[in-house]
Amino acid sequence: MSQPVPPPGNPFAQDAAAQQPAGQNPYAQNPAGQNPYGQAPDGQNPFGAYPPAPEPRRANVGLGIVAAVVAALVTAGIYGAVMGGIEREIGWAAIGVGFVIGLAAGKVGGSNPVLPVVSAVLSLGAVYVGQLVGIAIVVAKELNVSATDIVFQEFGLLTQAWSEGKDAMTFLFLAIAAFAAFSGAKKAAA
User: Fold this and answer.
1) pTM for the model
2) Where are the domains positioned within the chain?
């Protein structure tokens, strides 16, 4: 069995050439050479409306700092509650504290170079306050009193207990939180 050999050349080209007059593009159905993908003659976009381009985010340092302070207060309370609940320090929670503070500052404040530094400083304070709250919760459990009473009435003893209990891990958690806040603010603003 042998297969038939097709004739040389493109059989479709013969039909198209016979039907089209010379010099015309068989695919151009747009009069006057207009761009078929451009604006319609009435000025409207034939493919629907596009949303307007977003305005560039302006650096608002004041709002960024306010957001970072609020985030620092909230995360310090959460970190202290977790630390007091399980009665130990947690490194990943300190990272979370720093990152949330940096994220809030960067998202709200923009790309101002002051915000990562402010975020790092606030994260140091938030982790410190969180550790104090955690110690207050542990002591409150042992003495069967309110943790807020310990914080507000025995703050000197609370800071003394923190000073006596600090070790290399305490400072490592502080440093990690500051680094996470600085990085988080830089990444959120980008």
Assistant:
1) 0.67
2) 61-189
